[in-house]
Amino acid sequence: MELWFSDYQTDKVKLSVKVEKQLFGEQTEFQRIDVFDSKEFGRFLSSDGSIVFSEKDEFIYDEMIVHVPMAVHPHVRKVLVIGGGDGGVARELSYYAEIEQIDVVEPDRIFVDVCREFFPDNACGLEDERVRIYYEDGLRFLRTKHGEYDLIINDAIDPLGHTAGLFTKEFYGNCYRALNDEGIMVYQHGSPFYDEDEESCRVMHRKASHSFPISRVYQAHIPTCSSGYWLFGFASKKYHPLTDLDAARWKARGIKTWYYTTNLHKGAFMLPKYVEDMLEEEEDRKVKE
Amino acid sequence: MRAPVYEALEKLKKRRVVPFDVPGHKRGRGNPELVELLGEKCVSLDVNSMKPLDNLCHPVSVIKEAEELAAEAFRADHAFFMVGGTTSSVQSMVLSVCRAGDKIILPRNVHKSVINALVLCGAVPVYVNPEVDKRLGISLGMEISEVERAILDNPGAVAVLVNNPTYYGICSDLRSIVKLAHEHEMLVLVDEAHGTHLYFGENLPVCAMDAGADMASVSMHKSGGSLTQSSLLLTGKNVNWEYVSQIINLTQTTSASYLLMSSLDISRRNLALRGKESFAKVARMAEYAREEINAIGGYYAYGKDLVNGGSVYDFDVTKLSVYTRDIGLAGIEVYDLLRDEYDIQIELGDIANILAYISIGDRIQDIERLVGALSDVKRLYSKDPAKMLNTEYINPTVLVSPQTAFYAEKNCMPIRETAGKICGEFVMCYPPGIPILAPGEMITPEIIEYIIYAKEKGCSMQGTEDPKVEYLNVLVDERQVWK
Fold it and tell me: Could you report the per-residue pLDDT of B461-472, keeping only the tens digit for each?
């Protein structure tokens, strides 16, 4: 038997993964969710035909979106994770003893159930007693929050799909308000490589850099993401991702990682010239406006 | 349930007829860029009238059947498919009942298409003194006592025209107006440009045909889901529809688009099959948005709370209108911010309100975006409300009939110098397209101030010969006063 799953990264480029077996498939109120077993990536989950994460490479993403801000902010107590129903982000957060509360906001209950069933190594993060899951829209949840959080992680992936509302100016604005004066927001910044992704990447940086005094971008290599190259946004009211990095303190925690190191932390903010140029163009636009 | 025009098109497609008739793009082959943009399926349906497809100018087969099905769905005696927008429906209503010199009773917040029809036919408007909500700055419905006074003062008037509902969702007591008008042998014409859903939803204001009105213009392309520019004209049993058909054919195209007509046909079937559930969902979404917007504070999303039994006899809860002045921003400013900063396009912004159109195509996550954006607009952009112009509705003084004024000799004058003159053209914000000044009306200092303020705030002004609305055309001979 030969069965291939294809993720269209553009309408002319696809990543195909040989599938051993389909484990789940259902259209929910929000998205089409499928789970497959593969030899190369292990189990992987797709939403509306795009791979969200795989067993083989989810650690890169989850480590990079959690440990980067955690190694910068000196005292995170309250964290909000928007999206993140798979539990991977919550799992990484659970390694930090000083965190008191982790709120996970995920509109799609079926997504959480599917991850609990098929990805227990991720979903175990949701079982931590500090985690509270809210099954509602991220924007709605944020509207009533003022100055409450030290860290907000936007774990939503698709700026064009059902989570489009989490890549908008109102979202960044509402996050700004929900953070306290020292708060940090990290978010998925997409891939800058293909033409059709570039514009949404630009728009995201423009919106975030309008909303926050400090707005930097960092990168990681994630094979199942578009072009295998992924960016994250670091938007902050007070702490700078490099000058406020406390490497010694983070190392002393002894958290076991497979991708993140404090050396890589610094390197991740050193971007290729074309990405730097693109981001600077958006910042210049900010000055002109 | 059948959809005759749609079925006929499907059938024609299977026959693979070789076209030696118009349109000249020949199923798109002659215009590849257009096919690229619109898609092969779409351009292949852009065909001409022919025997198997009937002809809108004189329907005898599939269009006739489709119109009969529409009449049934809308509980009308007859239904016309219209392809020139609801503007063409409204004008056909007016032209069907008014001749030169006839009087027609109407509220002042009519769409410009009504007054345009008066320019064409030479009928004379009798405006019912409208009640205005002073805080919101919007005109409300017609009080039954005011309608009665207009009828008694103008016993020869031929018809009463009613908005059902207004752009903002406000309804007059249509049943009582119909009863009163019929007692005085006047017809009732209803502009239902914003009321398609009233025929299908539950717990909504009464629709024209159920209220016994004689004609109604229904914008299927607004809440009904058909393509832009498609519309329906409905007639009741008191109206000779064959004559209405002749009136329609005075100005209607002889090359009606099958894209538009099939969209009317399919949308009618959709509404008949699923309208009830769809509009229940729309009403729920609008109610939810109202609650969430009012919880932000500073905004006032109004609904049934406006109902007072008179000038607001009923309210269409599918409309989401929000008063924005208390956060120090004009509606048009919020409208511009939502588009430029938040990528959200809403239906209209006036001096004090915005209107977001909620329809069968909306999803709850989009509502969350709108509410989230309004909350962020308030956080980032709110100003001192004391500096806002208090917008009272300005009641016009009609000195000359619209037709006389439109065709009269005119002078072009700087707008600030026109107080006391008779206006020779329209001035309106679009949307909503309700005239601030219509041909034949007196220009006053308050109206000039209002126009300049609306321009400053960024309203898109239309109707004047001068695109910048710095000059107005006024009548030369002011003795030409009709009364």
Answer: 888 999 989 999
Angle, helices A195-211/A273-288, rounded to nearest 10 degrees:
50
Burial class (CB in 10 A: 0-12, 13-18, 19+), B26: middle
CA distance A144 to chain B (A): 8
B125: β partners: B104
Question: Is pLDDT of B385 > 90?
Answer: no
**pLDDT computed for residue B455 by the predictor:** 87
Give the confidence band of A61 by pLDDT, cuts at 50, 70, 90.
Answer: very high
Q: Check if the beta carbon of residue B353 is closer than 8 Å to that of residue B331.
A: yes
CA distance to partner chain B, nearest, from residue A166 (Å): 9
Helix B364-381 to helix B258-296 angle (10° resolution) is: 50
Question: With bands split at pLDDT 50, 70 and 90, how would you rate the model's confidence at B389?
Answer: low
Q: Select from B296, B343, B379 the Cβ nearest to the Cβ of A168.
A: B343
Element (H or E) spanning B328, and its range?
none
In sequence order, which residues have a C-beta less than 8 Å from that of residue B333 and are 6 or more positions away?
B324, B349, B381, B457, B458
pLDDT at B393: 60
DSSP 8-class letter at B108: S
Cβ contact A19:A36 at 8 Å = yes
3-state SS string for B204-271: CCCCCCCCCCCEEEECCCCCCCCCCCCEEEEECCCCCHHHHHHHHHHHCCCCCCHHHHHHHHHHHHHH
**Predicted complex ipTM:** 0.75
The dihedral through the CA atoms of A48, A52, A54, A55 has a sign that is negative
Instruction: Say yes or no for a CB contact (<8 Å) between A168 and B364.
Output: no
What are the tens digits of pLDDT across the range A27-60?
A: 998 899 999 999 999 999 999 999 999 999 999 9
Pairwise CA distance, residues A83 & A135, whole Å: 10
